[in-house]
Design a protein that fits this description.
The complex is a heterodimer of chains A (295) and B (308). Chain A has 295 residues and is an all-alpha fold. Chain A is globular, with a radius of gyration of 25 Å. Chain A has 15 helices and no strands. Chain A has a single domain, classed as Orthogonal Bundle (MetI-like fold). Chain B starts with a helix and ends in a 6-residue tail after the last helix. In chain B, strands 1-2 form a two-stranded antiparallel ribbon. By secondary structure, chain B is an all-alpha fold. Chain B folds into two domains: 60 residues, no CATH class; 227 residues, MetI-like fold. Classes of the chains: A mainly alpha (295), B mainly alpha (308). At the A-B interface, helix 1, helix 4, helix 5, helix 6 and helix 10 of A face helix 2, helix 3, helix 7, helix 8 and helix 9 of B.
């Protein structure tokens, strides 16, 4: 408290303050622009008249997005994959992480290598595809949950955190006759809230954002998650921009609308994260630091 | 004493004693066996002529045929140089920037500003690749894009970045830095927060200025982390983010944007040339692992930090 007033800002302090603020503004602006563009008049956005405030406010883009069958289907599917997937992820990761944190696990060293090696070497896309195919999982929605069931990196985060918990507690519980499952549930889990939040965040975001696996492994449109539809809307019609110069007014209007719909689509697709972000942000740094501890 | 005691227990007893831990490990182990180690064994199709009826283990063995074909193919040079160009540029740009940002944040006098800027810079990390590339395309659009509006506002002429080969790499790198700069800086910010503040006081007594402080205290404090990250990143030297590259590709930029992994996807999965592309994938992995091991060795020799 006292220190705050002790020293005046020097010139260098001001340079740094301004530079840091500028970096913040530059990184924030594209996101901010997407939001104001999504509620502005498409003509004004496309002609470059929207800069700092929305102009000609309307919500047509959002109406189009919310009435779009594909988007809604994808949204529903993505929620299911994310919720079920993240639950399975965290469940398996916590169990594996805990088991590996126990020094009395026979073969601990072997299992640590077993889990670390896939971080550096993988069979690659084609052998993985053929394996999934031979397991009969192609075009089965469950493939999206199984294929990313646990990640080595996240198990290591979990293991590092749990190894840092005092072992005496667990030992005395063991003497009292508690099973390993009871120790995990009653002693370890109540202490691991922050780590579990970080795992939920990492896994959840990965599920929500994934498009490559669904694109490769699923071909039934009813199973596709939001990102695959997003790709169709945001990226694949991009060629339309280049090709359609037949200058019919109707096409122009439609294109302009499509442009605004894209901004709205981005906002709608990011809503779950915008809601969760403020709640989870205090755990970010912590999670990354745990992960940084050498395995 | 206790340790010596437990070492004398027969192996089967030690195993039996932790059966519950093995049960906990089971789902993860099954996962790695099925989806990581089985595909690793499946890599052998790179040495075979894969036919679906014969399966991975039964197809005819052809040795290095596919590797030779790849190395002698016309795509070989393009793919390798495109991949290396993207990943090396990414490494050169992406390694120092987060360190600089972390030091800047650490030097910021106002804790409030520091926190706000940190939280802003993390946010883009969570945006999906599809949305990121969608935003890039929208912003760079020659007719309606934000970037071209800015260029025009300053009296320049609109540029069709998406159609320009030479714009691909800068677009890739800048959008990548926008997305991950803040996130990559977290680890350094945390390392700097752990620096013993008495060091700063001592330095001040010795008459150190701000630059001395950064050079002699801050940089050494983040060195181990930086080296570790450098090793890990160099192990991915040929693993360019294929998801993003694939999405950024269009018919006008493929000469610079076709990389090993996107080629493997297109030729392998879409045109079903499994063995040939599995060989390319393996070639990729082997180079990655080799680089990782070499860099790790070098790091071990010149600093105390190493991955394994």
């Amino acid at each position: 408290m006292v220190e705050k007033k002790r020293k005046k800002y020097t010139a260098v302090d001001w340079y740094i303050t301004i530079l840091v603020a500028l970096i913040g503004l530059i990184i924030a602006y594209p996101l901010f622009f997407v939001v104001i563009a999504s509620i502005s008049d498409p003509n004004l956005v496309n002609s470059g008249q929207v800069w700092l405030f929305p102009k000609g406010i309307h919500f047509d883009g959002y109406k189009m997005v919310l009435m779009d069958k594909d988007v809604m289907l994808g949204y529903r599917n993505s929620i299911i994959y994310t919720v079920v997937g993240t639950f399975c992820n965290v469940f398996c990761t916590v169990m594996a992480g805990y088991a590996l944190s126990r020094k009395d696990l026979f073969g601990r060293k072997f299992f640590n290598w077993f889990i670390a090696i896939p971080m550096w070497f993988s069979g690659g896309l084609i052998p993985t595809y053929l394996t999934v195919d031979s397991l009969g999982l192609v075009n089965k929605p469950v493939v999206l949950i199984l294929l990313t069931l646990v990640s080595s990196y996240n198990i290591i985060i979990c293991r590092s955190f749990m190894s840092s918990l005092p072992y005496e507690l667990q030992e005395s519980a063991k003497i009292d006759g508690a099973s390993d499952f009871q120790i995990l549930r009653q002693i370890i889990l109540p202490l691991s809230g922050g780590t579990i939040a970080v795992l939920c965040l990492y896994y959840g975001v990965a599920h929500w954002n994934s498009y490559f696996n669904p694109m490769i492994y699923l071909n039934n449109r009813d199973f596709l998650p939001l990102q695959v539809f997003l790709r169709e809307y945001l990226l694949l019609d991009q060629r339309l921009d280049v090709m359609e110069t037949t200058d019919a007014e109707a096409i122009m209007a439609l294109q302009q609308m499509a442009q605004v719909m894209k901004y709205s689509l981005i906002v709608v697709a990011s809503v779950p994260f915008l809601v969760l972000y403020p709640m989870l942000q205090k755990y970010f740094a912590k999670g990354i630091m745990i992960g940084a501890v050498k395995g | 004493m206790k340790g010596a005691n437990s070492n004398k227990k027969p192996v089967h007893k030690k195993i039996l004693q932790c059966w519950q831990l093995y049960v906990m490990l089971l789902p993860a182990v099954l996962y790695f066996v099925l989806f990581k180690y089985l595909p690793m064994a499946g890599v052998q199709i790179a040495f075979r002529d894969y036919r679906a009826v014969d399966g991975i283990w039964g197809s005819e063995w052809v040795g290095l045929k596919h590797f030779e074909r790849f190395i002698n193919s016309i795509q070989f040079e393009t793919l390798i140089s495109n991949t290396l160009r993207i990943s090396v540029t990414n490494l050169i740009v992406g390694f120092p920037l987060p360190i600089m940002l972390a030091i800047l944040l650490n030097e910021t006098r106002s804790p409030k500003l520091k926190k706000v800027v940190q939280n802003i810079t993390y946010a883009p990390h969570f945006i999906s690749t599809v949305v990121l590339v969608g935003m890039v395309n929208m912003f760079l659009s020659p007719s309606s894009g934000l970037i071209n509006h800015i260029i025009e506002a300053f009296g320049g002429e609109a540029v069709n970045f998406l159609a320009k080969e030479e714009a691909f790499l800068p677009t890739y790198i800048i959008s990548g830095q926008w997305q991950n700069l803040g996130w990559n800086a977290i680890i350094y910010v945390a390392a700097l927060a752990n620096v013993d503040t008495t060091l700063y006081d001592a330095a001040k007594v010795d008459g150190a200025n701000r630059f001395h402080k950064i050079w002699y205290i801050d940089l050494p404090a983040i060195m181990p982390t930086a080296v570790l990250l450098l090793i890990m990143n160099s192990g991915n030297i040929l693993n360019v983010g294929y998801e993003k590259t694939y999405l950024m590709q269009n018919s006008l930029n493929t000469t610079v944007s076709e990389i090993i992994s996107t080629y493997v996807y297109k030729v392998g999965l879409i045109h079903a040339k499994y063995s040939y592309t599995a060989a390319i994938g393996l070639f990729n992995s082997v180079i990655n692992v080799t680089v990782l091991i070499i860099v790790n060795k070098i790091a071990k020799k010149f600093s105390d930090t190493s991955l394994f």
